[in-house]
Amino acid sequence: MADKKRGYFGIGFYYGKNTANVGVLWRTAANFGADFIFTVGNRYQKQHSDVTKAWKHIPLYTYENDEDFLKHIPRDCKLVGVEFDDTATDLKAYKHPERCIYLLGAEDYGISPNILEKCQDIVSINSIRCMNVAVSGGIVMYDRQCKGRGKNGS
């Protein structure tokens, strides 16, 4: 039977504050069918939180800064900011694109205005307080899978 997966997605951090979150996101991304993960701002180190060795199955791209990240976005791929913002769409109502990159804001200061204005979509997770960034990434990927854009969705 042919693979039914259409499109692709990557997910990553914008200047992540806690490097242990990279390992958690990597492991979660492997479980939810991400094609790659990335960091903008090089804070990554080998993590004990990646107990499944997801690094063997999903590449990690590291971009030095905003400009480096923006020039490497694939052709015809939406940039989706995951951020608390007045213009954000609640994740419950969001229709995930076939091809996209989810950019998770830093826990201490979010996504820079320069990058946020370049996002074609901005989504937020309705919660009482700010959540851990790796957990937020897991929720976004789970939502994508539930709505039919996961590994076996169309």
Features:
single chain; 154 residues; alpha/beta; Alpha/beta knot; seven-stranded parallel beta sheet; 25% helix; 21% strand
Put the structure in a nutshell.
By secondary structure, this protein is of the alpha/beta class. It is built from 4 helices and 7 strands.
User: Regarding CATH, which class?
Assistant: Alpha Beta
Residues in helices, as a percent range: 10-25%
CATH homology superfamily: SPOUT methyltransferase, trefoil knot domain
Question: What separation lies between the terminal Cα atoms?
Answer: 15 Å
Domain count: 1
What does the average pLDDT come to? Answer: 86
Query: What structural category arises from helix and sheet content?
Result: alpha/beta
Largest sheet: 7 strands, parallel
Shape: globular
In sequence order, what are the helices and strands, one letter per element? EHEEHEEEHEH
- How big is the Rg? 14 Å
User: Would you identify the CATH architecture?
Assistant: 3-Layer(aba) Sandwich
Number of strands: 7
Q: Could you name the CATH topology? A: Alpha/beta knot
Largest sheet: spatial strand order: 3-2-1-6-4-7-5
Structural summary, described in words:
The chain is an alpha/beta fold and 154 residues long. The chain has one domain: SPOUT methyltransferase, trefoil knot domain (Alpha/beta knot). The chain is 25% helix and 21% strand. Strands 3-2-1-6-4-7-5 form a seven-stranded parallel beta sheet. Helix 1 (20-31) packs parallel to helix 4 (133-149).
List the topology elements.
Elements (H helix, E strand, L loop, with lengths): L7 E7 L5 H12 L4 E5 L19 E4 L2 H5 L7 E5 L6 E2 L8 E6 L8 H4 L4 E4 L8 H17 L5
Parallel strand pairs: 1-2, 1-6, 2-3, 4-6, 4-7, 5-7
